[in-house]
Structure prediction request, 263 residues.
Amino acid sequence: MNNTSRYGLILILLALLKRVVVKPLFFVSLFLIWPLITTANLISDNKVKLQDLLSNIAEKEKNVKQQQAERNHLVEKLKNQEKNIAAAERALHETRKKLSQLTKELTQLNENISRLQQQKQLHETLLAKQLDAAFRLGQQKGIELLFKCEQGQREERILAYYSYLNAAREQTIIKLQQTTTLLAEQKQQKQQTQLAQKKNLAKQDQEKKTLDSAQDARKKTLLSLESTLKAEQKSLAVMKRSETLLRSKIARAEREAKARAER
Prediction:
């Protein structure tokens, strides 16, 4: 066997030896490092999951913060609305109080006017009777003066007394009429005030109803928002617990991988 053949044989033997010796070593190495490779892949996957989870948590926290701001803003509006409703209620109470007082005053005025009209009518009736009596006495006096001078003087004094009574009664009637007219003017003014207050009451009542309706709508919105906010906060808490567990899982896997590598 020449040197060339011998060298080729040596190469073949070396190749066979390499295949026989290296391959078991490769499998042994692969067996030893496979857990490290698997753990590294698991850690990498978990870190990707953690980043996705952190992104979702950040978005969730942003939503929760926005909803909390909306809730606080709505609560502040409700407080201001309650103040407006209380003010509207006080205004309604004052207007009703004024209307009640006006009704009492108008009732009193009507009673006074009715009483004065009755008095005026009574005085007018009495005046008519007095005038009739004086007229009759005057006719009788004209006849009796032809016969009895003394009797005529007495009747003349009676006529003078009638004249005084009639004048006084006429003045009373005039004063009663003036007072009645004044009360009627006051009544008209109060009726106008009453009408204005009734219109004001209707306006205030409508404003109060509008405020109440808006308040009810805001309360419903607040209830819905609080329900959504609670659900979001609960979801965020679950996500943060998942974050804690995932971080713990990654840390544990890294410790185990380090321990294997050191062995």
Notes: Residues 3-262 form a domain with the Helix Hairpins fold (CATH 1.10.287.950). The two ends are 50 Å apart (CA to CA). Residues 1-34, 142-150 have pLDDT under 50 and may be disordered.
